[in-house]
Amino acid sequence: MGDTEAVSDPTTHPAAAVGGGVDVAPGDVARKPAVLIIGGLGYIGRFLALHIHTNRLASTLRLVDKQLPQLASLAPEFQEACSNDNFLQADASREQSQARIFDLPPKPDGTKQEFDYVFNCGGETRFSQEDEVYKLRSYQLSLTTGQEAAKRGVKAFIEVSTGQVYNPNSKPQKENDKTSKPHTKQAKWKLAAEEELAKIPGLRLCVLRMPHVYGPYAGRWLGTQLALARVYQSREPKETMKWLWGSDLRTNTLHVEDAARAMWLAATWRRQNDRLPNTPASERIVFNVVDKGATTQGQMAQIIKAIFGIETGFQNALVNTFARLNLEHVVDDVNDDTLDDWADLQEAAGIKENGGPLSPFMEKELLRDADLSVDGSRFEVVVGFRPKHERITRQEVEGVIESYKRMKWWP
């Protein structure tokens, strides 16, 4: 996984020979796969739709989501890919929705048509919810759509999962490493879904475990840090923005455009392959997908210091010990301290209704002293993936802030 290895174009890799980012010859539309994206208006789903639409990779593209495109805060570049022509509003966790979601009009010769690739980008994305919420909105959704995909002979079912299923460890975790202590409840139910999907007869499953996904319009992990930094930047007198735990804490990353490319490569590879090379036939097909940066909190602190012109640092051992024992109390204090300032900044900037996904609100689950460190070498070797955004940099993060400004989310 070292940075010195030759970076090849993934579309030249033998695993990418069928539709792996290379457009099919004109007139071959019928031979391009029909594609279904569950959770197609979510953060990763919309970028996957854009990748497929821009590169004309599919004969049919259908996005399914519970919310409407008009309410999804879509940037202008997504309007065509996520248009009403491609969109179906449905709750994919419900069995009675499956026929509407999966049925396609017959082919010109009258024969039945089915989707070739199904990408499950759906599920509950909020943290700190009750188990029942994840069970219904993530676990049940995965199983219901997986069973339908198997019944219809779908050629590749790509389940988007998370690197937070692994036990926290600073050493990069491989696909067979321990998963007895997932970081979050969301990860716990994602792991349960992975395991149940693997038991569905005939399902051509491929699981992709991703770290923190960032990029233009990102909320969650990166958006929270940037909103916090903006609050600190606005304060007089200046204060140091401090992280808990330490600079070495692993917070591995993947750019959302690379996530979309990886998913397409995974589907084209899975269509042609029934098992991982040099492994027992019973081994589940699971890949970690990660950039080359081995991102840490220390790197993020340096980037934020450079962009915002504020001092950054880390709490001392005493504060960290207190936080371990009283995390809820600490998080509540930080949120109380920053949310009003953020609201004032938004008001001063004239941002009244739509602030997009941005907020300095910290989630207790994401603030635990837990390394997120994954090894992506299996996916690189087997499928031929190379990230185009090799690491998170100042320039990458400045690009994210520019995307907020375009959407008028940034105070």
Molecular structure report:
36% of the residues lie in helices and 11% in strands. Helix 1 (43-54) packs across helix 6 (256-272), helix 3 (131-151) packs parallel to helix 4 (185-197) and helix 5 packs across helix 9 (327-348). The protein has 411 residues and is α/β, with parallel strands linked by helices. The protein has helices at 43-54, 98-102, 131-151, 185-197, 220-234, 256-272, 297-308, 317-325, 327-348, 377-383, 394-406; strands at residues 34-38, 60-65, 87-89, 117-120, 156-162, 205-210, 212-214, 241-243, 253-255, 286-288, 312-314. Residues 1-28 have low confidence and may be disordered. It comes from Recurvomyces mirabilis.
